[in-house]
Amino acid sequence: MFQNQYETVFILTPVLSEAQMKDAVDKFKSVLTDNGAELVNEESWGLRKLAYPIQHKTTGYYQLFEFKASPEFIATLETAYKRDERILRYLTTKLDKHAVEYSIRRLKGNLGKKKEAAAAAETNA
User: Which residues touch 18 (CB under 8 Å, ≥6 apart)?
Assistant: First the structure.
């Protein structure tokens, strides 16, 4: 089965309690894993100010998932976002080979370093 690498960011409404936010994040993580997506990275960016008000809210709870999945799965994921009233906004992006490289370097802490220096650091480690 052919798989691309994607990243999805969604913003949850700030009126949720900590437990409700964790529940919503777990729900979407299970949507990914239950449909055969391979979770590569997960980041919680926390409560942040929005660039403009959405549904009269000025802040939102940001969550990022990087995953590998088949292209057909994206429609399923975005339908789940649309059906959940806790989601203010979402964006799913297919990562090209350069974005995947960047993501790997970012996760390893090699950002800002040249590829050769990053490769040398990996061989020395």
Answer: none
In sequence order, the β-bridge partners of residue 54 are 57
Q: Tell me how far CA of residue 102 lies from CA of 8, 26, 54, in angstroms.
A: 16, 26, 30
pLDDT digits 0-9 by tens, 88-121: 999 999 988 888 888 888 888 776 666 555 556 5
Phi-psi region of 49 (alpha: psi -120 to 50; beta: other; left: phi over 0): beta
Neighbours of 73 (CB within 10 A): 20
The per-residue pLDDT for range 46-104, each reduced to its tens digit, is: 999 999 999 999 999 999 999 999 989 999 999 999 999 999 999 999 988 888 888 88
